[in-house]
């Protein structure tokens, strides 16, 4: 059978730091009055973004910020562009945080560091984890892709995948939220509803995604030095990027059957932003207008997701510095 092909173009901002960091209701309503929030890893890119949003949030008081190398410094000395966050406490080590005075934490630590840290926390604390440690539901899949046995399997079982627009009810009641990866967010926002509604076929999906450099975090690495990145673009982790099983986990849930994708990430000469073009086969009898209409209906009440009008191409500069994700659908082969 000959299927029509279409491409789904989506973009979202990522760090310096960035990722759609809404403050979930699970945290905002943790207590009557303001929730007392600690940000672990506040001296990194995602941590800084959480502080930027949290410091202005009416339902949050930031009671602790942690850093490792930067511990002891004022937050505004580490991120001078956030100098207005004057009420923020200075950065301390995780071991010095008084967790009895904390209702919720945003955990912005490197992968694996997170598991050891979170399993020691008191149970009254609600957690939004930005690392990849609790996203994969199957511990064997985690080990296969991350190379180590999971150190907090019990916590992994209770974690809820925090792609809010697709999982809002579970997010509301979660104690531990696993925030999705950057590429899985960009890929799943358009693909999940279309696969679930059977408007596109769940096979032969190609996801071609491009990321800004801040997605790699603030710590120095040879691969993100200026001379390695400037004036060029490169694919990386081809056929073996750890976000592949995360995307497949979500899309398989949408399809109700095992979905495999071809996914290639690229590193761009951008500090922040992400662009993702996914190629899918449309179900017989559907048109790109049907797909766009379905996405518009799905996200009609979602403030941070914009489904663009026919013909308009999303661009990273349209979402830069914001929480928005934009998308559109185009027919690429009849
Ligand atoms: N960058 C992005 O766009 C996204 C990143 N993520 C994930 O979020 C997490 C944080 O990423 P990102 O902000 O980019 O990372 P960064 O490297 O920018 O920041 C890491 C933070 O963790 C602290 N830290 C590092 N090692 C330790 C340790 N052994 N013990 C305690 N604290 C430590 C660092 O402190 P210090 O600098 O003071 O040493 C810093 O505050 C990662 O798991 C990442 O994969 C998720 C979505 C998007
Ligand atoms: C450019 C770059 O290096 N990107 C990171 C993904 C960053 C991200 O948001 O995902 P995690 O939360 O899973 O780290 C990578 O490819 O590993």
TrEMBL record:
SMART domains found in the cross-reference section: Semialdhyde_dh (SM00859)
Active site: 182
PROSITE patterns: ARGC (PS01224)
Annotated protein name in UniProt: Semialdehyde dehydrogenase NAD-binding domain-containing protein
The protein's annotated pathway: Amino-acid biosynthesis; L-arginine biosynthesis; N(2)-acetyl-L-ornithine from L-glutamate: step 3/4
SUPFAM superfamilies according to UniProt: Glyceraldehyde-3-phosphate dehydrogenase-like, C-terminal domain (SSF55347), NAD(P)-binding Rossmann-fold domains (SSF51735)
Species whose genome carries this gene: Dunaliella salina (Green alga)
Keyword NADP: yes
One Pfam family recorded for the sequence: Semialdhyde_dh
Coiled coil: none
Domain Semialdehyde dehydrogenase NAD-binding: 36-174
Domain of life: Eukaryota
Keyword terms of this UniProt record: Amino-acid biosynthesis, Arginine biosynthesis, NADP, Oxidoreductase
InterPro entries the UniProt entry points to: AGPR (IPR050085), AGPR_AS (IPR023013), AGPR_dimerisation_dom (IPR058924), AGPR_type-1 (IPR000706), NAD(P)-bd_dom_sf (IPR036291), Semialdehyde_DH_NAD-bd (IPR000534)
UniProt key word Lyase: no
